[in-house]
Fold each of these.
Amino acid sequence: MTMPPRAAAIEAVPEWFPLRPFNFDVSFNQRTFGPQARVIAVQTGLTALRYGLLEIRTIYQYYSHHTPNFVTDQHSLFVNPRWNNFIDVLDFPKAYPINRAIRHVLFGPLEDRAVPYVGALIGGTIPGRDADSPGYLYGGQVGVRFPVARGFSVDMGAQYSRFEIDFKGKSDVSQQWLFTIGVRF
């Protein structure tokens, strides 16, 4: 008895810890509170679930700023749900789809390899409301991933977040813009 040929799946299948789950990013940022300075931060994360064009990442970020006047260290842990290739929603009109025009303008000759994404950030920081308690973190991001080779890609993004932070005995909400360039394995 012969087996039927493999059929292509119509529905996406949840993929736990996919092939490229780890990422490393170097972040350049400027803050509006605690402390007002430009710094370099490092973050690492992993992709916990991929389902079609959606993925959920978990990210740990360490921020450290040392000067003669103060020392501050901050740890953030957050969940990052992302929608990959969100531009493809604009796949109309048939003659010249809007998404192809946007991809051509933004990515030029790499338009077919680029994976643009939009995402949310939800998590917490330590120190938060005071020196020993956590605070909340939320925000959003937009970026693009360029697959370079099997299992390796370059990721560039911009993210905005608001979070509680304790700095020099005072607690407040900080706003942060982060521009990241990193690699994913």
Amino acid sequence: MTRGITVKLPTHKVVTALEAKLVIVKKNYSNQEAYETKYQKAYAAYQKELTDFAIANVKKAFNFRTNYRAWNNQLNIDYDITVDEKDLPVCPEREWENISLHTYKETVEEISNALSILRMTDELTVNASTMKQIAKYL
């Protein structure tokens, strides 16, 4: 027979952690346009570096493929280059999660509700079942 794990955390620590998470969620949502702009600039610089790399190494290219589109007068040229990944420019990654408005509102509401309930309680500790419900926000 297995026994469940009993965890009791001080309520004030849980409230403090939830308040901190709420501040982070609000800050990330309000700054996501700035983060996206910064990412797009970094990605444009990455594309330029990658293009410069490909042009500089065109003499190593093989398996050329061309496709001329007469309707818009475009010539598409594809080729392969054998390189080590370490030689390539590093692609920037998004360091944040893009949050939609409805997800943001839902998350803020749930954290706020949890904070309201925890502030009203007379209990000094939070039990495991309550922690399971709010752990996804911490």
Amino acid sequence: MPMNPMQMFGNMQNMMTQFNQFRQQIQQQGINPQQQVMQLLQSGKMSQQQFEQLKQMASMLSGNGFFK
């Protein structure tokens, strides 16, 4: 059974809340997310395809300033 629009909105709100909590945690720890991603890519722990997917997601989330 497909989700109704209200369920989808609730899921999106929950996902954004979790993302904001994650963002606060890494900021408090002094972690630079761009630097971490580049290290994963250079070490081979992240594939180029995964990097492109992450970049696409980051561009969608860039309105909140996380990857600026």
